[in-house]
Specification:
Blueprint lengths: L4 H14 L5 E2 L11 H12 L12 H15 L8 E4 L1 H13 L7 E6 L5 H8 L2 E6 L10 H7 L4 E7 L11 H11 L6 E5 L29 E6 L12 E4 L2 H12 L10 H10 L1 H23 L14 E2 L9 E2 L5 E2 L2 H12 L1 E2 L1 E2 L11 E4 L4 H15 L4
Parallel strand pairs: 1-12, 3-4, 3-5, 5-6, 6-7
Antiparallel strand pairs: 2-8, 7-8, 9-14, 10-11, 13-14
Helix pairs in contact: 2-9, 3-9, 4-5, 10-12
Length: 397
């Protein structure tokens, strides 16, 4: 198993900065904002009043109730607290969901619309299934079609990982397209849906008017076999807290809680009041961050359009742009590096002009010509970094 491509680039950035280089990092999917003060205060108060003991495996009741109420109210997913498990980040939730639905050695297959986050495929394979990629074309905004989905289903298909808004593409599916895909999934009773909605609050109707989030678990036809995954990392700028959660049909939720009891047990006890505070009293702070990201999305796309020889889809969600740089393959960099892939493009870019991007190879076979840029950074960094890319690209021969 290979290491995470995003974490590998992060390590290279740290090494370059340790040598004194001025690196513009578009690599990590981490908001540059601080966690809102009211959320931090809730955790500090809990710590000071002695909330330092073990918590229940699935999480404190108050936090599970807050998640259930949020999903019922905002997402239309009718949820009870006992269906909720608080996890060590959303990645942990996805890992356990896959372990629950896959039977090793049976020949199970899990569908994955791509380009997709680098960890989905390894997590599928770790659980003992084959990952079946469904490629989204840049011409269609990286979104798959119902026809593609239908053609990918076999009698071995046991699940699909659904991610909208998307990492790495920075796009959200229109609600009507999600409904259409869900209509197809409703025809296949054996397929469990793992819906990763970690970027749900980072959607930009300023870019695509009336764009909204839609949760597959809100549909009656799919509610009994949908596991909804989310967390506080992205929308609440709480990446280092490692707080995720999932909501599953009750029978599956019980099995996932058993699994968590043999793995991590609970997260730190004094985080639970912060979860409640985030989900019930932090809408204003989230909206302020969302609005800033929307402006950065516009700035990033305008800047990338000025770079010769690349194709880019305007990001309308999350905080990523995912341009295709394959037109530059076969060229040589100013310092003599041969550009033959997204990986070699990214390596030379970091080495020669100190701009860090994530190469597309690990995001799916259809993404081998792409690079991912995160705009979870300042506007000045976006302008500076893309300016360096533009100047460097014009010197490729």
């Amino acid at each position: 198993m290979s290491e995470s491509a995003t974490l590998a680039v992060g390590a290279k950035v740290a090494a370059a900065r340790a040598k004194g280089h001025d690196v513009v990092a578009f690599a990590m999917g981490e908001p540059d904002f601080d966690t809102p003060a009211n959320i931090k205060a809730a955790a500090i108060a809990a710590l000071e009043r002695g909330m330092t003991k073990y918590a229940p495996t699935a999480g404190e009741k108050s936090a599970r109730e807050a998640v259930a109420e949020k999903l019922s109210r905002e997402n239309g997913i009718v949820t009870k607290a006992e269906q909720v498990t608080i996890t060590v980040g959303a990645k942990h939730a996805i890992y356990m969901a896959l372990q629950a639905i896959i039977e090793p050695g049976r020949g199970d297959e899990v569908l994955l619309p791509t380009p997709a986050w680098v960890s989905y495929k390894p997590l599928i394979e770790l659980a003992g299934a084959k990952c079946v990629e469904i490629p989204g074309a840049v011409e269609h905004g990286f979104r798959i079609t119902r026809e593609q989905l239908a053609e990918s289903v076999t009698d071995r298909t046991v699940g699909i990982i659904w991610n909208s808004p998307s990492n790495p593409c920075g796009v959200a599916y229109p609600a009507e397209e999600v409904r259409e895909l869900c209509e197809e999934l409703a025809l296949h009773e054996r397929i469990a849906i793992i819906s990763d909605e970690i970027y749900e609050k980072l959607i930009y109707p300023e870019i695509v008017p009336e764009l909204t989030h839609f949760s597959p678990g809100s549909l009656a036809a799919l509610a009994h076999r949908t596991i909804t995954v989310n967390g506080l990392s992205k929308s609440y700028a709480m990446t280092g807290w490692r707080v995720g959660y999932l909501a599953a049909p009750i029978a599956m939720a019980k099995e996932i809680i058993k699994l968590q009891g043999q793995m991590t047990n609970s997260i730190p006890s004094f985080f639970y009041p912060a979860i409640v505070e985030a989900l019930t009293n932090s809408a204003e702070g989230v909206e302020q961050m969302r609005a800033r990201f929307a402006e950065r999305a516009k700035l990033m796309h305008i800047a990338l359009e000025s770079v010769p020889g690349i194709r880019s889809v305007a990001p309308n969600a999350a905080f990523y742009a995912f341009p295709d740089v394959s037109r530059h393959f076969g060229k040589t960099s100013p310092l003599g590096a041969r550009i033959t892939s997204a990986q070699s493009f990214a390596d030379a870019l970091l080495e020669e002009v100190h701009v860090a991007v994530v190469p597309g190879e690990d995001f799916g076979a259809c993404a081998r010509g792409n690079i991912r840029l995160s705009f979870a950074c300042s506007e000045a960094a976006i302008t500076k970094g893309v300016g360096r890319i533009r100047d460097w690209v014009t010197q490729l021969r």
